Amino acid sequence: MARKWDILGRVSDLYVGKSTLFKTFLLAGVAAISILFSWYTLGLINKLQVDTRDQVEKYVQLWQLAANSPTSGGELQFIFDEIIVKARFPIIVLDGDKKPVSWRNISGIAPDDTTTSVKERLREIAQEMYDQNGEFPLYFGDTYVNFLRYGDSQLINQLKVMPFVAIGIVLAFMIVAIVGFQNIRRSEERYIWVGMAKETAHQLGTPLSSLMGWLEVIGSENRSGVDAANQQEISDTTIDNMKVDVERLLRVTNRFSQIGSIPELKECDLNALAEDAVVYYRRRLPFEGKGIRIDLNTGDIPPVRLNAELFGWVLENLIKNALQAVDARSGRISITTKLAVDKRHVQIEIVDNGNGISTVAARKIFRPGFTTKKRGWGMGLTLVKRIVEEYHVGRIVLDRSQPGETVFEITLPVAGR
Ligand SMILES: Nc1ncnc2c1ncn2[C@@H]1O[C@H](COP(=O)(O)OP(=O)(O)O)[C@@H](O)[C@H]1O
Ligand SMILES: [Mg+2]
């Protein structure tokens, strides 16, 4: 089955991945707990059963001792009242013909109930006891023999169901956890979709309104009385500018169409990509802030495997954030590309001299929805991080920030290494 990839698809894949991992962990946990618990309880049951058997043997000895001693009567009664009656496990004594003659601790049957239906039931229970534990003969003198059979105490019977109870409880917890996790995942996905759609609408808006402006220029040129040659020249620049906007529109549409498809990584010239982004924003500076300067310092770097559409979007987002953070009269933004010290990665630094990010905010800036802006969506850095780290196997960090200096750093692996 082909794996679907896109910014959002990747996000869901990521979550599917996480949730499978999560479920596997849970399952392993449940299995481990159940096995441990069952093992422990079985050990306990076994120990109790051995203890019971020891006890029963003692009872049988005592019983015989009392029964065969010359003083019989009262002592037998004492043993029966004080020891046998106080035993916690069920006992049935059968006569020589294997008919139940006395019994204790048989749940639901009183010791003095002798109706035929009870006798029948007792016979069945006695058979079960025999199957499970055998029987002890009780010799009275040389001729008269009774048989004592016993079963598991109520405690043991309760213990036997404990592993199932435990597994049930753990399973219930697991179901609650999984359902909760899926709900979080769904709502976060929805959130990202909405953010992405809004982001795109916003990106379409800028070149569209610019195009409208140029159309107006054309309209007024046609009406005004400039001479034909001059008009031709103005129209040419206007058309060039319109071309830029249309290209921009195409690019945004293209990016958006990547949602639901599988964007490829190709060896790219990162410097050229950075140049594109910088040129785009430099052109916008007259609107954003006349005193802002954007510098580009391109280092000597090898090609990097990138998806140009998505990575261009990453750079633009970071530059846009920087633009929004700096002063319109004295803002400085610089983008630097360089080979990392290990020579196996390239690094891009986006530095601005804006208002900076507080330590508290720095912990949250990559979270979906975190924004300090009145009209922000808080989706920019979330998507930037996902595109860089999940799709390009790179890393993005806020390297340092204080008023006057904020540095974002992206690290990407060099192609073919
Ligand atoms: N260069 C920067 N300088 C100062 N703050 C920044 C910078 N980049 C990001 N931030 C902070 O991170 C927050 C989140 O950024 P982002 O995810 O792009 O969302 P948005 O731009 O919609 O607020 C911003 O609201 C801002 O507080
Ligand atoms: Mg932003």
Question: Care to describe what's here?
Answer:
The chain is α+β, with helices and mostly antiparallel strands and about 425 residues long. It has two domains: about 10-155, Beta-Lactamase (2-Layer Sandwich); about 265-415, Histidine kinase-like ATPase, C-terminal domain (Heat Shock Protein 90). Helix content is about 60%, strand content about 15%. It has nine helices and eleven strands. The protein has helices at about 5-70, 75-85, 115-135, 155-225, 230-255, 270-290, 310-325, 360, 380-390; strands at about 90-95, 100-105, 135-140, 145-150, 265-270, 295, 305, 330-340, 345-350, 395-400, 405-415. It has a five-stranded mixed β-sheet with strand order 6-8-9-11-10, with helices on one face. A four-stranded antiparallel β-sheet has the order 2-1-4-3, with helices on both faces. A two-stranded antiparallel sheet has the order 5-7. The longest helix is centred in the middle third of the chain and has 70 residues, at about 155-225. It is rod-shaped. The two termini are about 30 Å apart. The chain binds adenosine-5'-diphosphate and magnesium ion.
Features:
417 residues; binds magnesium ion; 11 strands; alpha+beta; 4-stranded antiparallel sheet; 59% helix; Beta-Lactamase; rod-shaped; 5-stranded mixed sheet; 9 helices; binds adenosine-5'-diphosphate; single chain; disordered N terminus; Heat Shock Protein 90
Number of helices: 9
Total domain units: 2
Query: What is the terminal separation in angstroms?
Result: 28 Å
**Strand arrangement in the largest pleated sheet:** 6-8-9-11-10
Q: What proportion strand?
A: 15-25%
Q: Strand tally, please?
A: 11
Shape: rod-shaped
CATH fold label of the largest domain = Heat Shock Protein 90
Estimated radius of gyration:
42 Å
CATH superfamily of the largest domain: Histidine kinase-like ATPase, C-terminal domain
Largest sheet features: 5 strands, mixed
Give the bound compounds.
adenosine-5'-diphosphate, magnesium ion
CATH level 1 name of the largest domain: Alpha Beta
Order of helices and strands: HHEEHEEHHEHEEHEEHHEE
**Residue share in helix:** 55-70%
Given the helix and strand composition, which structural class is it? Answer: alpha+beta
- Average pLDDT value? 81
**Poorly predicted spans:** 1-16
CATH architecture annotation name of the largest domain:
2-Layer Sandwich
